[in-house]
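Subject: sequence -> structure tokens, single chain

Hey, anyone have a minute? Need the predicted structure for the following. Not urgent.
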Amino acid sequence: MSLSDTPAPLDPARQGHGASLQGGATAALAEPTRKVTARWVTGLVLVNVGINAAFFGPIQIFIGLQAISFDEANKEAILSLATACGAAVSLVANPLFGALSDRTTSRFGRRSPWILAGAVLATAALLAMSGAATVALMVLFWCLVQLGANAAYAAITAAVPDRVPVPQRGKVGGLAAMGQTLGILFGAVFGAVVSGNFMVGYWLCAAALLLSVLPYLFHSDDPVLPKGVLPRFRLGVFLRGFWISPRHYPDFAWAWLTRFLVNVGNQLSIVYLLFFLRDILKHENPPAGYLVLTGTYTLMVMITAVVAGPWSDRVGRRKPFVIGSSAIIAMAALILALFPVWPAALAGAAILGIGFGAYLAVDFALLTQVLPLASDRGKDMGIINVANSLPQVVAPVLALVAVTSWGGYRSLFVTAAVIGLLGAVFVVKIKSVR
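Reply:
Had a minute. Here:
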């Protein structure tokens, strides 16, 4: 991989909300107008499946099981430590690798090299986690998983505004959301299949990640960024580019904040779900129960994502879908808070799936329409992805405080609902997207 470092003039005009570069634009930087093929979308979906299996299999099942094997009495603290440290890595890795991919001049394109390198690193780290003998090693290897998986995720996310025209983004966003959800489901399936053997679970996640990226890499057709198109690399300019002024780009700032809040609410709802099944609902087989809930959730996400995304394309509106789906997500958390019984958990999973499917599809399309610069799509989408990662740092801390100091799981789920609703409220501040 090489980075563009030759000085050349670049139109400094703002490329707000997906506008194309004026004059001299290369295919890598131009606003896409040609619809992507079904084969390309399939590759995109599969990459999302593998990355999310690698993320959520460990987060939801295997790190928790490994924490129990280390110290049952402090399992919540161990899980919170691991997930928070991994998420802290992702806060830096996602925008950093997104920015590096923006400047990559490989003959294989800007994004594909980082997808491959990230997948290989994360796969190796997952295999190492399976043999971690101490909490410290488990946390270290999980941080490496986050480093590699976020490099791949930053690149595949940036490929959407690179390649997909705006009128197709709701549909593609819905299919990408379906891929994310299938990855979560695979993580739960792995958890049920291995019957508590977290070592085998990590191996399955590693295999799923590595195999999932191959179809995309063989048929990515990523546009190549020629050398000399971007200005010479300067570290100070590069680092300053990670700050996007809310005053100059208010819609980007509001979109980031709303995504952050909704994700905090969602993470609060699921971070201790395995323990909730085990300790509160007294489920006889918590991993199997988790699989049932995840399967219910996944089915509803896939239905609503593939319906809501294209629907928002047809009507040309995004905000009403995002507001409504955020409110539905909060409703699911309230159900878990008020009715801590198995049937209510099933209902909550279904409602959460309905809301989150629509949210993932349409909010993703909305986000791609408020990116400030065409030349910085990878970096800017990486900053947006921080709104996905930062909740993994914040939510475990809030969850631990809620469960141990604020009254237990009921307080936890009420907090999740309130924070999620705030995300719905702030969507109205976005002005450039209907």
